[in-house]
Predict the structure of 3-isopropylmalate dehydrogenase.
Amino acid sequence: MSKTHRITVLAGDGIGPEVMDASMLVLDAASKAFSITLDKDVQLVGGAAIDAKGCPLPQETIDSCEQSDAILFGSVGGPKWENLPPDEQPERGALLPLRSHFGLFANLRPGVCLPSLTHASPVKNELIPNGFDVLCVRELTGGIYFGQPKGRHTGEDGDITAIDTMVYKKSEIERIARIAFTAAMTRDKRLTSVDKANVLQNSILWRETVIEVAKDFPEVELSHLYVDNAAMQLVKQPDAFDVLVTGNLFGDILSDEMAMISGSLGMLPSASLGSQNDNGLYFGMYEPSGGSAPDIAGQGIANPIAQILSAAMMLRYSLGENDAASAIEAAVNHAIDSGLRTGDLFTGKDGEKKVGTVEMAEAIAAAIS
Ligand SMILES: NC(=O)c1ccc[n+]([C@@H]2O[C@H](COP(=O)([O-])OP(=O)(O)OC[C@H]3O[C@@H](n4cnc5c(N)ncnc54)[C@H](O)[C@@H]3O)[C@@H](O)[C@H]2O)c1
Ligand SMILES: CC(C)[C@H](C(=O)O)[C@@H](O)C(=O)O
Ligand SMILES: [Mg+2]
């Protein structure tokens, strides 16, 4: 019997529409193969919404998301909107409010370097003969992104002060730590908490709280790293990590690093989750970890895999369609293993074939069974 799910599709700006269209090819193939009916409501967000409606997050977009089981998001922002007042720009006016409005505090970013892609990684290949698989759990609705006060003022001496405030409540740290420990229990049972507890009050509370939560997960081996050391260790030996848990800003930075060492920023999907419902599913927003890539937008060369794997995460976490999610992940691996490479992954090695966004998506869609 066909199951129906409703999703809101927000392609956004830059490469967003290109990789979103590509992910639709794959979602349609998976829906057909697994008898899933997806009711897709396409809405405007970011710069595209500013251009068409005068604001980055129109009310009808929020209304649509509220009526959906999940949001599939492309990316927002770009040079065209960079000179608008900060709160009217796509990132601060749409993306952050969506995360906050829907309470999407848990951001899962799985950085996987496939064995067949190790040569595309800037990390020395002999260090990662089997690739690696690291899950970054990033807190997404707190920390310096949202803390108050925030702003700027000019003092009597004419000097300008800009203020951002890093705030974490113990309860916010506790809930993201539980998500990370729970994820570690399904993997290799090793969790590294990343902070800056040698300097920041926030991080001292972070570390204390993570240690307390660890008592409920005695099987998980917990370690702590300062963020500067973590950034270094990730490049030195990425396969030494299993799960990372960290705050909003550190997670943003480390996840881009993790994406690149897995081959390309265009490979890293993400799930931003709120609370779990009675069926064990989450309302969530699913998006590539990278951005609108204005430098390559409009050329049909962007890597669609982060968007496609984000759609797979949506099927798993919000729609409960685990078989379809696994089939998409297997199809992505198949396309990579068979040598297909968008430009960001292409190294010229024997057996590689350079393809565009659509060709990559068509190959992935065709491999779904
Ligand atoms: N979730 C989001 O909507 C999101 C995330 C990050 C950045 N942004 C926004 O995107 C805009 C550009 O930011 P940026 O240039 O700092 O970061 P970016 O992530 O857009 O691009 C960084 C580099 O990675 C490359 N890249 C990213 N995704 C790729 C893909 N799928 N395939 C191939 N190459 C890819 C780009 O070409 C670029 O060279 C800014 O407005 C920024 O705020 C949005
Ligand atoms: C665009 C920006 C606000 C966003 C963030 O910093 O969270 C992005 O970099 C990400 O990683 O999702
Ligand atoms: Mg980022």
Remarks:
- The first strand starts at residue 3 and ends at 12.
